[in-house]
Amino acid sequence: MLEELIIAIQSYLKAHRFIKENRLWKWILIPGLIYAIFFVLGIYYFLHSVSFIVDYFFSVVGIKAWFAKVNTRWLQFIFLFGQLILQLISVLFYFSCFKYFFLIAGSPLFAFLSEKTDAILNGKDFSLSLKKLLKDIFRGIAIAFRNFFWQTVYTVGILLLGIIPVFGWITPLLSLFNECFYFGFSMLDYTNERKGLSASESIDLVNRHKGLAVGNGMVFFGMHLLPVIGWIIAPAYAIVAATISLQTEER
Q1: Nearest 5°: phi and psi at 23?
Q2: Of 98, 186, 216, 244, which is most buried with the most CB atoms under 10 A?
Q3: At CA 195, angle to CA 193 and CA 197, rounded to 5?
């Protein structure tokens, strides 16, 4: 898995050179700007409500009232730290919802970029087939919905773990791993579909190469630490890098 993680990370560097050499900026900057604007607006409004959501969750499950009764310093520390952990997980869950919204809305661009990247890498003439593009788009949307469902199931389980003192402290890491894997999965599936793999075959392949999926998602999330520029280029770089990483793994 470590080797695949390295391949996935290196693929982003190759993606940058590939995009630059083949002048693909116009397919990156406009959708990237749209993504960045919605990302900033979404995270702004979510951060203003996440504290209320976590506080409400603790009240509903009765933990807040119980801690008020015990009123000891070390329990207060655990309670406050638990709130922080749940806030982090909630932010990741918001990011997940936003990410899948953009994956679905941006599926035409992702399908196009993946196919164009593959054509250039293999020295083939790129001809846009509307029928094939539509097929790729619907496949991408279906996989996005499937991944969103399973990621949500695992996230709920992680949230429940988050209320367990001490053990719950590792839950943000588990949640981040979950996020990275399912995002990378969606990026890799465009190439798998083009190879003629069915959805079940694609799921099996990605499960056997988790490192490629996790590594792709890891760099995608990491790029968001670079304000504005990272937000703009992250989505398109992810799909190009995913296409390159699968080719590298096959060699």
Answers
A1: 50, 60
A2: 216
A3: 55
Which token pair is 38? 């919605």
* Coil, helix or strand at residue 126: coil
Domain boundaries, the chain: 2-250
- pLDDT tens digits, one per residue of 198-227: 888 888 999 989 999 999 999 998 998 888
The CA distance from 87 to 52, in Å, is 10
Q: What is the mean pLDDT of residues 103-123?
A: 81
Cβ pair 205, 197 in contact under 8 A: yes
Instruction: Find how far residue 170's CA is from the centre of its chain.
Output: 19
Q: What is the pLDDT of residues 4-59, one digit of tens each?
A: 889 999 999 999 999 988 888 888 888 888 888 888 887 777 767 766 666 666 66
Buried b (16+ CB within 10 A) or exposed e, 166-191: eebbebbebbbbbbbbbbbbbbbbbb
Question: Quick one: CA dihedral 171, 153, 211, 20, positive or negative?
Answer: negative
Q: How many angstroms separate the CA atoms of 35 and 103, rounded?
A: 10
Rg of the chain's alpha carbons, rounded to an integer?
Answer: 20
The letter for the amino acid at 225 is L
Q: What is the pTM of this model?
A: 0.77
Total residue count of the chain as it appears in this document:
251
